[in-house]
Design a protein that fits this description.
By secondary structure, the chain is α+β, with helices and mostly antiparallel strands. The chain has eleven helices and ten strands. α1 runs parallel beside α2 and α6 runs antiparallel to α7. The longest helix has 30 residues. The two termini are 44 Å apart. The relative contact order is 0.12.
Length: 364
């Protein structure tokens, strides 16, 4: 049985079990590809007291699109079960999304309505196996990756107790290409923070913003894990410090919510702190974005053409342009590259230039 994803603590409740399937089909560690290009495409909330505010929480559709693009998991079959309907579990692993309020193994059981995923394996015997890679500490208790055997009667009872049914998905794995180049960490528009800071329902706004900061922080930690894996070395201290900054923001948001929830005054400085963390993303994670920008500018091509990272495939690239890129990067980041690193093999790809720049920044 495949081990649970090593970075489960950086994944949300829908990603965690997509990651589990990706590692099962493509090998341990595949799930870190979810951190290659951090997601930050705020969408408006459509109902409830905060309708109109923006959220970075991705929809299931968006998560499945990421699974296809980054994890080599194409949707083969997707359907919605009706209330009380038990899905067909034969035919390979089944990815399920249901209301966590009705799932007895998660801390949200009987306390909070939220979409949650798990994987069902059916080998044709008397017992089915539920796997759930979710890892989180909540105010209702801890969630940790678990494998849970369910007798068929117990499994049927579980689904028959779901008043809204569940979403079920089967995937067809396809071969993975080379690991994607790390993308920039995008920031939300100005109205994102302003909406939560100015909303009159402070309890609802702060409860929701606590989730927002949790999602944003996890996205950045997963991105950092991907960068670390790609570099084959530890993270630079500025990145580690920035991740601690995000952890502090999550704690601040939760504290603010709990104070207001208990009828106390809202602590100050939360949204200023959030704005600072978002602004510092570019400083902490800017190497890949800067390299692509410089290379595209020097070669006078669109950045999207640099997805494969190999610069020698571009006719515009030659030794003169290579030296120009190096000089611009040194000037922009106020660094001097180690002469031993200045060999063509390190300068002919986006990945090589990023590694070169990160090594130079490490020694500053």
């Amino acid at each position: 049985m495949t081990a649970f994803p090593a970075h489960a603590q950086h994944l949300d409740c829908l990603q965690a079990n997509l990651a589990l399937l990706a590692d099962r089909h493509h090998g341990t560690g595949t799930h870190t590809r979810l951190g290659a290009v951090p997601r930050c495409a705020p969408r408006p909330l459509t109902d409830g007291p905060l309708a109109g505010l923006l959220t970075v929480e991705p929809t299931l559709d968006a998560q499945l699109a990421d699974a296809a693009a980054l994890l080599g998991l194409d949707v083969a079959d997707r359907r919605r079960t009706g209330p009380g309907e038990v899905p067909d579990t034969s035919g390979g692993p089944l990815y399920v999304v249901a209301d966590a309020y009705h799932l007895p193994w998660v801390p949200y059981h009987g306390t909070k309505h939220v979409e949650h995923s798990f994987v069902v394996d059916d080998d044709g015997g008397d017992t089915l196996l539920i796997s759930d890679a979710y890892h989180n500490d909540t105010q209702w208790g801890r969630a940790r990756p678990a494998r849970l055997p369910y007798a068929r009667a117990e499994f049927s009872a579980l689904f028959k107790a779901l008043p809204d049914g569940a979403e079920t998905v089967r995937f067809t794995p396809r071969p993975l290409g080379a690991p994607p180049e790390p993308g920039p960490v995008p920031g939300p528009p100005p109205q994102y923070l302003r909406g939560y800071a100015e909303h009159p329902d402070r309890r609802a706004a702060l409860e929701a913003f606590t989730l927002e900061t949790w999602l944003l922080a996890r996205t950045r930690r997963l991105h950092a894990a991907y960068l670390e894996e790609r570099r084959g070395a530890g993270l630079p201290e500025p990145v580690r410090e920035h991740l601690r900054r995000w952890d502090g923001l999550v704690e601040h948001a939760y504290l603010a919510f709990r104070r207001v929830d208990r009828g106390r005054a809202e602590p100050s400085g939360l949204f200023e702190r959030a704005a600072e963390a978002l602004a510092q993303d570019a400083v902490a994670f800017g190497a890949g974005a800067a390299v692509r920008e410089v290379v595209a500018s020097v070669l006078q091509i669109d950045e999207t053409a640099l997805v494969d990272g190999d610069l020698t495939v571009h006719p515009e690239f030659n030794s003169i342009r290579m030296v120009e890129v190096v000089e611009i990067l040194e000037e922009r980041f106020t660094v001097e590259f180690d002469p031993a690193d200045l060999v063509p093999e390190n300068l002919q790809s986006v990945a090589g230039l990023c590694a070169l720049l990160n090594r130079a920044l490490d020694h500053e």
